[in-house]
Structure formats: structure tokens, C-alpha cells
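quick one, 83 residues, struct below
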Amino acid sequence: DDATYRAYFDTFQPEPGWAREWAALARAAGARHGILTAKHHDGFCLFDSGLTEFKATNAPARRDLVREFVEACRAEGLRAGLY
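---
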């Protein structure tokens, strides 16, 4: 329910550079691609969506985290996939 997630939503703010760090670690481990869950099964989106207000761009993060992930993967020569 909404009350369960409200505390997480109100404090959700990944550190700057998280995606670059993950992508570099994946490449160093020998990965050829990275996969990110872009929308939680309960509806929280890591991207900007016109269909919901329950999204990272409305949380303290205030940014599109899918874009960060995709750009970081590409910078490391990894294919980026979204689930």
C-alpha cells in the first residue's frame, strides 16, 4: 500500500555516480550487458512517466535513473537492458 512505500519514496536519492560505478564493476567482472528493473511491480518508476506521480523524478532523486544507467553502460561498452 502507499503508506508502506511513502517512507522510501520520501528518502529515495541514489548517490551521484551510482550508475557509473555499477557499470565499471560489471565490465571489470567480465559482464557484457547490464539489466535494470525500470518499474517496480508496485508501480514505482525509475524514469519520468506521464502515467504516474510515483516516480524517481518526483522523489528526492529528482532525475531519470534509467537514463543514468543506460548512459553508464554505453560508456563502459556494455549493452543495457531494461526489465
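The helical segments are 2-11, 18-28, 65-75.
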